[in-house]
Write a structure and sequence with these properties.
433 residues; alpha/beta; Nucleotidyltransferase, domain 5; six-stranded mixed sheet; five-stranded mixed sheet
Length: 433
């Protein structure tokens, strides 16, 4: 077998007509979510708008989302420039992740105290902090949010159902850090948008394409029907779409098999077709279907393998051959290597097509006729490092918008979440004043 079967290719391709339907369905789900009606898109108000670029001073950001906890300090020059970034990582232990919640937040407070000491931040020097908390939360204010449930192997007790900012403020008080104030609770996608928007006023969409995926955008307050706050004319707010849960997508037998064997069956449908956490597993299921049974263990075919295999342009696919040997497959034929590479390409291409369709829906929600210029800030290893993913996204956008696609500028906003959280702290500080 030298090529993928036609039917299999067809099941992993998104034709132009289907892309248009995805855009229509996405618009419908966005509108329902904004109105507070049942929708697969949560459309969460974030209580923050874009920065003016005039924010000035030193601000600190915290980033909790994995086994490494980061403290970042930046200096804003008030002219759209970010200077002197300083970052320190602290490794979380198992007892921090799985023990009592007070222990986790005491660890965070101790890390801030250590960072403050290293940077000679006096106890009389007040600092505003932005807290990037990359777990599902119900945000109730710019500096308050209740943890809905833990993900990413965290299970610290006494946190679910509680305001994480209050828990951290209590820990800061126990550590004697009375000069530190949590000014903002931040989603990493929102942070990415904010970081780019500080120096680029055309930025109105933030997008994460990595292990997970999500997007946010700037919406007029009058269109956020469920927003009960004051709606002054022309006022806007960033809305966290939580687009990974969008469920109006055509799924094939591989998608259904993956979903049925997942811990969150029926949820995160778009994410399971697009993100780095799942693309490798979809490819593994395709390879098993083709009779290549070397990857029998679930999630044994990593998305990083796809990146390496798709990037092999040698005549004999020697890099793939070498990688397969490292995975215990010593005698692969050239035909098998070609088949594996083609399977990787078609799965990642579909992910890029879906990402582009969803992005096009967000763009046309803001600007139906695409009459204005828009900058889209994107962070994540899938967009940055996966061969062909960003190119396939652009190709799909070109098909959707034609020449108008020139009005869209996609920018890699590397590590935008940390810098964005610090800028949001600056915004919250100025609002308080």
């Amino acid at each position: 077998m030298r090529n993928l079967p036609v039917e299999l290719k067809k099941s992993l391709h998104i034709p132009q007509g289907r892309i248009k339907k995805i855009i229509r369905d996405f618009h419908s789900e966005m509108s329902k979510g904004l109105a507070g009606k049942k929708s697969s898109l949560k459309m969460i108000p974030t209580y923050v708008d874009r920065p003016s670029g005039a924010e000035k001073g030193k601000f600190i950001a915290l980033d909790l989302g994995g086994t490494n906890f980061r403290v970042v300090q930046i200096e804003l020059d008030g002219k759209g420039g970010i200077h002197h970034p300083i970052e320190k990582k602290f490794v979380l232990q198992k007892e921090n992740m799985h023990g009592r919640g007070t222990g986790l937040f005491d660890f965070i407070a101790a890390s801030i105290k250590s960072f403050s000491k290293e940077q000679n931040i006096s106890s009389n020097e007040k600092r505003e902090i932005g807290f990037t908390f990359s777990f599902p939360i119900k945000q109730t204010g710019i500096a308050s949010g209740i943890l809905v449930n833990w993900t990413k192997d965290f299970s610290a007790s006494g946190v679910v159902g509680h305001d994480v900012v209050k828990l951290l403020n209590d820990a800061l008080a126990r550590a004697g850090l009375f000069n530190i104030r949590i000014a903002a609770l931040v989603n990493d996608t929102v942070g990415t948008l904010i970081a780019q928007a500080y120096g680029d006023k055309l930025t109105d969409i933030g997008l994460i394409l990595g292990t997970g995926t999500n997007a946010c955008y700037v919406e007029k307050l009058e269109k956020i029907k469920k927003w009960e706050g004051k709606k002054s004319k022309n006022a806007s707010m960033i809305v966290n779409i939580e687009w990974g849960n969008f469920n109006k997508l055509p799924r094939n037998k591989f998608d259904l098999l993956l979903d049925n064997n997942s811990k969150n069956k029926g949820e995160q449908v778009l994410e399971k077709m697009v993100s780095g956490m799942y693309l490798g597993e979809i490819t593994r299921l395709v390879l098993i279907d083709l009779g290549l049974n070397s990857f029998k263990k679930k999630y044994s075919f990593k998305t990083e393998f796809m990146s390496r295999f798709e990037g092999d342009t040698s005549a004999g696919l020697s890099k793939i051959e070498s990688d397969l040997k490292g995975l215990g497959i010593k005698n692969s034929s050239l035909a098998e290597r070609r088949l594996i590479k083609e399977a990787c390409q078609i799965v990642s291409q579909r992910g890029a097509q879906i990402s582009a369709a969803a992005l096009a829906a967000v763009v046309t929600k803001i600007d139906p006729g695409l009459k204005e210029k828009h900058t889209i800030a994107i962070d994540g290893s899938l967009f940055e490092k996966h061969p062909g993913f960003s190119r396939n996204m652009q190709h799909t956008l070109d098909k959707i918008f034609g020449k108008k696609t020139l009005r869209l500028r996609t920018v890699l906003a590397k590590d935008g979440s940390g810098r964005g959280a610090a800028i949001i702290a600056a915004l919250a500080s100025s609002q308080k004043e």
